[in-house]
Structures are given as structure tokens and as C-alpha cells.
Amino acid sequence: MITATKGRHTPPRPGGIGIFWPEALVKTALLAGVAVLLLAGSAHAGDKCVNPDGTQDPVCAERNDEDWGGEPRQRVTVVPPLPPGPPPLGWVYGPYTMCGDPPRCSTGVVNVPADGLNVRTVPNGPPVMSLVNGTPLIPLQKQGDWLLVAPACDLTPTWAWSWNAGVPLNRCWVYF
Asked: What does the pLDDT read at residue 149?
């Protein structure tokens, strides 16, 4: 601890730690850490330019599989889990939809005598959401009377609930 007496500083008491000791320790530790990193980096940089046969190369070139000797490295190919196109929304009961472009039926619309058509995770499974009449759909797969569909528009909540299933009722987003 440093005390001031009439503008003068008095030295720390014997056995006490001065104010400058922690600052000096921090600076020394910081400089030592930087020196260690520089030495480690320069030692590692020298290893990068050594050829597989042990000779030093002045220019570090990228190595291909044959340079490493032995068998080539394994390659990983990531395959997308879904088919190309829009992601599936869920399963709907087919008779409650109407074909939008017969006979292809590459699009359809919800046409149900209720507030909305229930969308399920599996055919005849529990409903997770509902779609209002007129919502365009893209059929992706058929299983009996059930259709796996993707929305043909951006969906948005209506802030109402399906009265028969207790799930949120959704509609197409209208852009202005």
C-alpha cells in the first residue's frame, strides 16, 4: 500500500506488497506467454514444409492423397435426407382436397365442409395443425386416401383454433 504524505509517496511497509508488484507480474506473464506462442508457431511452421520423404521444401504445397503414401484418405458425402422440392408439411385426408390441375393433380386446394383441414404427422395420426379452405397444396406422396403434402404458399396463423381438433388454424400469407 502506498500512502501519500504532503505530495510524497512513502515506500510500502516491510512485508507488504507494493502497488506495482501485480502490474509487473501481469506484464511479465503476458510477455512470456507471447514469446511461447511465437516460438511454438515458428517451430510448427517449419514442420509444414517437410516432404513425406523427409526433405525440406522451401514452398509449402498442398498435398494430395498420393503424397501421403498408403491408402487414400476417406471421403464423406452428405446426402440430403429429403427429396428435392418443398419440405413436407404433413398428411391430409385426400377426399377433402380438390385437384387444381386435372388430370395431373400436381397441385390441389383444401376443400372441406368445416373451418379447416387437419394436418397430421402420420396417416390417421393426431392432428398438429389445420388449414383453411382454399389453401393450395403440393401432393408429394399418396398412401391409400392420405396425401403427404407441402404448402404451395407461405403459411401464417389465423390466431384461431380448429373447433373440432383443438389445433391452430393456418392460412396463406398475403403479400401487399
From this structure: 95
Alpha helices in the chain (DSSP H): 20-48
Q: How far apart are CA 26 and CA 8, in angstroms?
A: 26
Amino acid at 106: S
The upper half-sphere exposure of residue 142, i.e. CA atoms within 13 Å in the direction of its Cβ, equals: 8
Rounded CA gap, 130 and 140, in Å?
Answer: 18
The pLDDT tens digits of the residues spanning 2-34 come to: 545 555 555 555 555 555 556 666 777 777 777
Mean pLDDT of the chain: 77
- Hey, which bits of the chain come out as E strands? 3-5, 8-10, 90-93, 97-99, 108-110, 117-120, 127-131, 136-143, 146-151, 155-161, 168-172
pLDDT in tens, 77-104: 776 666 667 889 999 999 999 988 888 8
Instruction: Respond yes or no on whether the N-terminal peptide bond of residue 81 is cis (omega within 30° of 0).
Output: no
User: In whole angstroms, how far apart are CA 152 and each of 2, 82, 90, 137, 156?
Assistant: 76, 17, 13, 5, 13
Measured between alpha carbons, how far is 50 from 68 in angstroms, rounded to an integer? 12
